[in-house]
Amino acid sequence: MRPPREPVFLERQTYRRRRLMDAARLLPLLGAVLFAFPLVWGEDGGSTAVRGLYVFGVWFFLILSAGLMARRLADSDAPPPPEGGDAPE
Amino acid sequence: MLSFNVLVAVCLAYVAFLFIVAFVAEKRAEGGRLGWLRSPWVYTLSLSIYCTAWTFYGAVGYAARSGLEFVTIYLGPTLVMVGWWALLRKLVRIGRTQRITSIADLISSRYGKSNLLGVMVTLLAVVGTTPYIALQLQSVTLSFAVFAQDSHVVTPESWAVTDLNATALWVAAGLALFTIVFGTRNLDVNERHHGVVTAIALEAIVKLVALLLVGAFVVWGVAGGAREIFAMTEASPIAAWDIDGGRWVSLTFLSAAAFLCLPRMFQVLVVENADERHLATASWAFPLYLFLMSLFVVPIAVVGLAVLPADANPDLFVLTVPLEFDRAGLAMLSFLGGFSSATSMVIVATIALSTMVSNHIVMPIWLSAGQGGATVSGDVRNVVLRARRISIAGLLLLGYLYFRLSGGGAALAAIGLISFVGLAQVLPALVGGIFWRGATRLGAAAGLGIGFAVWTYALLLPSFGESGAMSAAMLAEGPWGLGWLRPQALFGIDGMDPVTHALFWSMALNTLAFLAGSLASFPGPVERLQGADFVNIFRFGAGTRGWSAHMAEAEDLLIMAQRILGPAEAQALFQAQAAEQGKEGYLPDTTPEFLEKLERELSGSVGAATAHAMMGQITGGAAVSVEELMRVADETAQIMEYSSQLEAKSAELGRTARQLREANEKLTQLSIQKDAFLSQISHELRTPMTSIRSFSEILRDGEEIDAGARTRYAAIIHDEALRLTRLLDDLLDLSVLENGQVTLNERPASLHEVIDRAVSATQSRLGRLRIERQAADERVVLFTDTDRLAQVFINLIANAEKYCDAPRPVLRITVRQEPGAVSVDFVDNGSGIPRESQGVIFEKFSRLSDTRAAGGAGLGLAICREVMARLGGRIAYLPGQGGAAFRVTLPRARAEAA
């Protein structure tokens, strides 16, 4: 017997949600790359203060993006019953 | 001016306030009013124990020495939190469904509940955390010393630097007290500590506010604005960007790894998590917290470097800069911030470690030492709690000793990163375990072992300095002159920063050993099941399997569960499970589902490995059946298994079948009893009748009977008539009760008085039976028919007197208040009632032994049951108490109506 195949086409809303999850998974990678940037600027790529501003800027951008995504993900994700009960079995 | 006494007083007041907050939170949690205790904000703030005193004071010192590099310590956790959807969400879900109690428990549970791995991770954690605790003690004592030595402060003569050690000791003792009081109050099945979490959330706010205020003061108070501070930074000694790229990347990675693997972080992230949705909020709110914590670090460092003398310790700029400008209040707040950072870290770290030590080291030893065959009675919870308390005190003592022996100083300051590298060794086993089904116990053990060894050799031992564990020659030349084994230049790779070097080699070799070991070995059955459960946690939820059915007696399981979870919780669990199966009473069928559920419940208290071992002792060790293995092998079967409708239907059918089977059994027994009833009642009536008839005939016919004999015969006739009357009374009573024609004479009365009455009514025939009572618990006011209730109690006491077969019979009467009910347990120390008879003892004429000596007609318990039903309560046999035990339950509504 074969397991039921997942459908090839998804509803628009479900499709959007899947891509949102992908974006949530990719965000830390993006952050890691952006945080590594000051290293490749070389000797005259700016002082501690300038690069510091850049790092804090990226940092704030990550916080904002994570905040926006978290709200939409939390809405769409059906969480297990909080407390007391076991997870659905 | 800030006198030293004021400092101590404020500090003590702050500590007292924390105690009160923790206490109030515990009380609220106990009363079930969780409210804001469970908010995502408290969760987010509790994560802030990542920012210890090392980061509170040390970040500024770090920035003063190497510019922006300090920020990597915060970037790693930021990336992990922002990427919660990929990793943390899974970790938290696994932690919740599998009732994970610590990081050691997670690793042990994933790899087939292996205790070896649990012990390895525990040891690693203890070795890695002890210096860290020492570091916190050092930071608190140093900050005290700042106030003591500062010229602005009135210093008492008696205060000298040697008193630092005393300060450290007092701080350690205070922390031990707090942690023991709030961390080991009870053995919570979810291992959550509301008081502690609330207190550390409060401390999180204090340290954030303190740092922000100092920062704002420095930027706007000293420098004169954002533009000016920027110019000052450009002009400062740290203006040039001089950062080793390798170190930047590896420190970011290291802090991310440590964020996941530190026992205290695991405790707040996973174990104390009350709701998965909190993670969504924390995913951005916690990075924001870190962002704010580090926002002013560079400005403070820059200003400190500019205004303070060159020999000032940059690690204490957060304190000394405000003091330099005579801001005693600000310095005080900043001191409290540092104090909060140190204490909250130590509290959570010791709780997490003590859980690991008790579950993975003490319990296995205790179990195998034979004290503990799982079937013996006695409370295990005390053992666990005592083990935890002792280990908390022990860990703090260890931290204190380390602080004393290392002499404080710079060597200790470097220990933060060293500790991170040590604990990061868990990462391959952790991440591999939750994403790769092929990861095995052997691989995990090999990886952990090698990583631990490399870390010790290349980083920990050299960190003690040349006079410490390793000689200068060994550091320079390698052991026995083997150059490629030089601790800080393994395999000839020279010139790397020591932390980066050790991190690189330990992680590389660790991962390599983990992968190679996993690929080469073959996992055992439990391991494969756990692996599938962990990796596929979102696909099927936790599967229910692991134990073969019908190997265990429910009563043995109940006895064990009572010792770990406590009698009330265990009985409630068993009763609920029995009700779910459509059965009455306290003993559900021991289905595999139930065994699995019970094991998970137990592992929430004592850890997966111990719970598994205890279950194994009772079920005879046959953990996994052939079908269950086939299910793992065959994905298709798994999907079929979970086709939900079928499952629901078959569960429903199973439940109905079980009910039918029980009903049928009962009917058959009832019909046998009906026949028995008829013959019994004729027998019961006939025996006294016969003797009455024969003795009255003797009296009628015999003329030469003397007066003595006549009296004796008349007395016999009278006695037998009385017995007949009693029997008929009982029958009448029963039929009145059964038909519901009885009128109750309800009034408020004290339970204590009712029991008193019952005891004194049975006093004359008590004989050797000793009764134990807890008078204090019995002070409950009831609204009930006291005569009827007393009748029930009398019956139970009389039964114990008649049937208890212990050489020194004792009857224990315990009153317990439950939500919605008051229960009275009558437990004797005899051999109890055999399992197969427990179902019929409340039926009419069911006398278990045929000892007519007992004298009753077997109606007592049947009457009791009817009486209790009329009073709105019930009476049930309570198995697993070591003797015959009956529980009388009265509804609370009646108890409170008075």
From TrEMBL, chain A:
Keywords: Membrane, Transmembrane, Transmembrane helix. The chain crosses the membrane at residues 52-70. This is Uncharacterized protein. It comes from Tranquillimonas alkanivorans.
TrEMBL record, chain B:
Residues 646-680 form a coiled coil. Its main location: membrane. It is an enzyme of class 2 (transferase). Keywords: Coiled coil, Kinase, Membrane, Phosphoprotein, Transferase, Transmembrane, Transmembrane helix, Two-component regulatory system. It is a multi-pass membrane protein. InterPro entries: HATPase_C_sf, HATPase_dom, His_kinase_dom, HisK_dim/P_dom, HisK_dim/P_sf, Na/Glc_symporter_sf, Na/solute_symporter, Sensor_HK_Regulatory. Its EC number is 2.7.13.3. Belongs to the sodium:solute symporter (SSF) (TC 2.A.21) family. This is histidine kinase.
